[in-house]
Amino acid sequence: MNVNFFVTCIGDALKSSMARNTVLLLEQLGCNVHFPEKQSCCGQPAINSGYIKSAIPGMKSMIAALEENDDPIISPAGSCMNAIRHYPDYLAEEPEWALRAQRVADRMKDLTSFIVHTLGVTDVGARLPGTAVYHPSCSLFRKLGVREEPITLLNHVKGLQLLPFKAEETCCGFGGTFSVKMAEISGEMVKEKVSHMTEITPDYLIGADVSCLLNIGGRLQREGHKIKVMHIAEVLMSR
């Protein structure tokens, strides 16, 4: 199957291992991965700050970049994917662009949902001995409705035991610009999140949104915890 890879800004600049492993994983599962070279930021920081009109030129550039073909667009980040899926709303006053935006949005697929539902795979052959907690990001499970797919894939990783922890579905406090504008509140939220996770001392913290992992991982590091932080694509490529 031919697919497009939407790397995201964080994947490109801060978490290249996630991007690399996503591509390797898709190739391992039989996909031909195309990288639209003109892709750029989805505009989420500006959108979240209320600068919708200022973000529209960037949205249009992204739409054009992702129109190179009609194949699925795979995203390893729920927050960025959610931003693109709302392009039609922001471009409602320009019907032609709104239609183009909708066509692109309809092709967006979360990595885990694509593997489980489109490819029909639940066991990718991964192996990672140890215990782990999984953080369900707000964008992925609240906005996109992706709840069971990551868990299904992780439950098939040989040697890995997922542990439940208190208030699993509580926000970590990142929220894009929220963590900047409301730093004190955000700091307390991630502090509480980490306290729940460390009560059970897992070997790994796993998530499917890099932004949340950076936020929680930063707190873990500041508190001196030795929990390894991994994006789910990295876990699924472990052997």
Automatic annotation (TrEMBL):
Name of protein: L-lactate dehydrogenase complex protein LldE
Molecular function via GO: oxidoreductase activity
One GO CC annotation: cytosol
Superkingdom in the source lineage: Bacteria
Cysteine-rich domain segment(s): 3-84, 133-216
Pfam assignment, any one: CCG
InterPro entries: Cys_rich_dom
Organism encoding this protein: Samsonia erythrinae
Lineage, uppermost ranks: Bacteria, Pseudomonadati, Pseudomonadota, Gammaproteobacteria, Enterobacterales
